[in-house]
Amino acid sequence: MGRADAAKILDLRRVLAERFPGAVRAGRGARGVVVTGVGCVDGPLGGGLPLGEVVEVVAGGACSGAGLLLVELLRRVLVDRPCVALVDGSDSFDPADLPARLLGKLLWVRCARAGDALRPVDALLRDGNVPLVLMDLRGNAAPELCAIPQHAWFRFQRVAGDAGTALLVAVQRSVVRGVRWRLRLDSRFDLGALQKERAALLGDLCVEVLRGGAGGIAVGAE
Questions:
Q1: Which is more confidently placed, 205 or 88?
Q2: What CATH number is associated with residue 49?
């Protein structure tokens, strides 16, 4: 780790300590879920994103609704949680998608490349004060994703389990090794979707939930 990277991680830890001093560490052996309020996620996963585990969301294409799903997760989770972290692998998140009252509780880490997102995710998981970390790599090119060492994913799973943190990784193609839960979006939105209300679009979401590499069932959002 270079000096610049080390300084950024120290800054991240300082921000966590200053902004979320009242956050409670879940610790090893913690059980439970982060309730998202999105039916196509909470239902098949037993009530929400499981604490202490890594969940991969695979976008089935540019118009699959992955962006809609991630923003809706943030909208709903930030209402009840003191903090949520978004590690943006391609600096593509638009803060205008969230109301100002929720942005104040979002820790947004902006990265230029997929590789730059690894250390912040590791630091956030180890800190243990953030119940949900979203790692958005949908805008990163395939060569960047392939360059991520496989052992990094297994390390994230171990650290998330130790801290009792839920880590959701969003990608265009499946890259997370050894993951127990995988969500695949099979929605197909066209130009007509621009005329629909957000609630209607959520109802059109089609998510296939896979567990342990086995086939899943397609379900729609509430």
A1: 88
A2: 3.40.50.300
